[in-house]
Amino acid sequence: xxxxxxxxxxxxxxxxxxxxxxxxxxxxxxxxxxxxxxxxxxxxxxxxxxxxxxxxxxxxxxxxxxxxxxxxxxxxxxxxxxxxxxxxxxxxxxxxxxxxxxxxxxxxxxxxxxxxxxxxxxxxxxxxxxxxxxxxxxxxxxxxxxxxxxxxxxxxxxxxxxxxxxxxxxxxxxxxxxxxxxxxxxxxxxxxxxxxxxxxxxxxxxxxxxxxxxxxxxxxxxxxxxxxxxxxxxxxxxxxxxxxxxxxxxxxxxxxxxxxxxxxxxxxxxxxxxxxxxxxxxxxxxxxxxxxxxxxxxxxxxxxxxxxxxxxxxxxxxxxxxxxxxxxxxxxxxxxxxxxxxxxxxxxxxxxxxxxxxxxxxxxxxxxxxxxxxxxxxxxxxxxxx
Length: 386
What we know:
4 strands, 72% helix, globular, mainly alpha
């Protein structure tokens, strides 16, 4: 018996909650390792270069970049699958249902970026304006899971829908604003490969393994084009058929198989590779004296809280949408606070925005501190709700 959309959402939330625990452990291991007597081994490992291919076709990157560019493509592929499922038969199918969390997500993206820009001022640090725009679904759902029965069912759906719309915005920001040295020929090649994927789908090819070579080729062309290669993962996820093909429910089957791999392998490895920031006295003092660190914290904590709550309130007052019957504005305030947990995609955008290791370290301290504050604030607000 095939799972219903509601059952699929429940399973998605369960996997995200479990993945949030593994993600937290991986992040803690990275921070402890990077501040231990073996910190040189940590940095040597992730800066070790690995070459795949030969000649002009070779891809030579550090192990950290292989994680960020290749392994994270799997994460973004699963995000694309989830977005496609939500539009095909989930909360985003009905515009009237999606409008309120959509507005909340928009407010939770625009205001954090604006506050970041106001705090950080100009200069190279301003390139990271996209850092506080993201919400980490795994950590956000993990906080809700810890609160258990204190959280009404509508709260989880509201936060999940908000985070998915937030993901759409983050993907657009990465594709448009963090591309570098755009190569039109390679970009056209990537679009050509995606066209082949559509043609194969229309021809009735339903076995996912048959699409793996096309997926790898799409990733490679995107990598060469200057657009971040994880965007190829999103595109392939969105192109996955939501209906039945040759008797196979391709989207559901892929998500069922790959979502645990993404949550329990790809994201924790990404955290292990990217969350290792020095927290000795000098590093923390430098970070706390940096506008960049505070810009990230203010964007994640205040920007998300005010942006999500304010946009939702405007939507309700203007009768553009309505909250689920078991939610009130107090719950929305809690959702706004939890939305400030921007760990995974925030770290991802940090790596795209800065090449300077000092700026990366300052931004990471802001992400760790801001996400922790947002989690504690959200838990405190929601635990007091009935």
